[in-house]
Amino acid sequence: MSTFAPAIEARDLVKTYAARGRPPVRALDGATFSAAGGAVFGLLGPNGAGKSTTLKILTTLARADSGTARVAGVDVRTDPARVRRQIGYVAQRPVTDPMDTGRENLVLAGRLYGLRPRAARARASALLDRFALTAAADRLVGTYSGGMARKLDVAMGLVHMPAVLFLDEPTTGLDPEARAEMWAEIEHMTRTEQMTVLLTTHYLDEADRLADSLAIVDDGRVVATGTPSQLKDGLHGDAVVVELTDDSATSTAAHVAARIDSLREITADGSVLRARTSARSAIVLPELLAALDAAAVPVAAATLARPSLDDVYLSITGHEFQAAQDTHENAEAAA
Question: Is there a single domain that holds both residue 146 and residue 196?
Answer without folding.
Answer: yes
